[in-house]
Design a protein that fits this description.
Number of strands: 2
Strand order of the largest sheet: 1-2
Largest sheet: 2 strands, antiparallel
Helix content: 40-55%
Oligomer: single chain
Radius of gyration: 16 Å
Distance between the termini: 19 Å
Shape: elongated
């Protein structure tokens, strides 16, 4: 993704989730690939959030990015019986060319 100041960033995340026991049927039969759905929801949030931030803001707002990812993924997966328990932004790094230029 590119930031507001046109810096290309790579964002790696980890999502921790569990199946809601009351919705096991939905979790097993109503969604084909839950990991791909979660990944798509995370990517959607990252692609819509990072372009609104400058490079420095992206690093200082990792917690707000994490919270936004968590909220959106929880909403997206709730109906399928998945409860998101935690989201971690494990790595947020600028493009190699940008790092070499610094």
């Amino acid at each position: 993704c590119k930031t507001k100041d046109n810096a290309t960033m790579t964002c790696k995340t980890a999502v921790q989730y569990r199946i809601n026991k009351a919705k096991v049927r939905q979790a097993v039969f109503e969604i084909d690939n839950p990991e791909a759905q979660i990944r798509a929801a995370v990517d959607n949030v990252v692609r819509s959030s990072l372009p609104n931030m400058e490079l420095e803001d992206a690093f200082s707002n990792k917690d707000s990015l994490r919270n936004e990812i968590m909220q959106n993924v929880q909403i997206a997966m709730k109906d399928y019986g998945y409860t998101v328990t935690n989201v971690l932004v494990t790595d947020l790094s600028p493009d190699r060319a940008l790092l070499q230029a610094m």
